[in-house]
Amino acid sequence: MNAKVAAAGIFVIVGFVGVRLVTFMQEADKHVNRQAYEDGYYKTPANEEPEDIIPMDLPGLPQQLQASYDVVIDKDAATLEAWLKMYRPYVKEPKLSEIELDYIVKVGRTDPPKARKLFSEVAAKNGPSSPLRDRIDTLSKTYQ
C-alpha cells in the first residue's frame, strides 16, 4: 500500500515539474521572439525592398473564386501557376494582370528569365491608363 502511495506521489510531482518546465520553455520562447523583433532580426534589410503583394480591390475576380485565391496567394509560385491555369478563363482584366504580377514576383525568385518574359507580356497589355501602371513601373526596374 505504501508503495502505491509513493508511486502516485512521485507521479504527481513529476507531472507538476513537467508542466512547469513546458510553461517555462513557452515563456522563454515568447521572450526570445519578442526580443528578436525589437532588435530587428525579423525586419527587411535596409538595402532590400519588401516584395509583398500589394492588395488592390480591382474588378475581375468572381466572388466564387475569392476564397481559393486568398489561400493560393500565400503559397509558392507553382501553386499560383496551377491556380492561374485552372481559373484564367474566369478572371477578367485588370485583376488578371494583378494576379499575373503576383506570380511574376514569386517566380522571379527561382526563374528570372521566365519572370522577365511574363512581365513583358503583362506590361504590353496594360497601357498608360491602367490602374496597375504604378506597380508595373516599379517592377520594371527588376524584370526588364
Could you explain how this protein is built, in words?
- This protein is mainly α.
- The radius of gyration is 25 Å and the shape is elongated.
- It has helices at residues 2-39, 63-72, 77-87, 95-107, 112-125, 133-143.
- α5 (112-125) packs antiparallel against α6 (133-143).
- The protein folds into 2 domains: 1-43; 63-143.
- It is built from 6 helices and no strands.
- Residues 44-50 have low confidence and may be disordered.
- 67% of the residues lie in helices and 0% in strands.
By secondary-structure content and strand pairing, the structural class works out as: mainly alpha
Task: Please state the average pLDDT score.
Answer: 82
- Count of discrete structural domains: 2
The number of E-state strands comes to 0
Helix content: 55-70%
What quaternary form is this? single chain
Low-confidence stretches: 44-50
| Main sheet record | none
Q: Could you say which overall geometry the principal axes of the C-alpha atoms support?
A: elongated
Radius of gyration over C-alpha positions, nearest whole angstrom: 25 Å
The arrangement of helices and strands along the chain is: HHHHHH
State the end-to-end distance. Answer: 82 Å
Number of helices: 6
Q: Tell me the strand percentage band.
A: under 5%
List the helices and strands and how they pair.
Blueprint lengths: L1 H38 L23 H10 L4 H11 L7 H13 L4 H14 L7 H11 L1
Helix pairs in contact: 2-3, 3-4, 4-5, 5-6
Quick rundown:
With 144 residues, the chain is mainly alpha-helical. The protein is built from six helices and no strands.
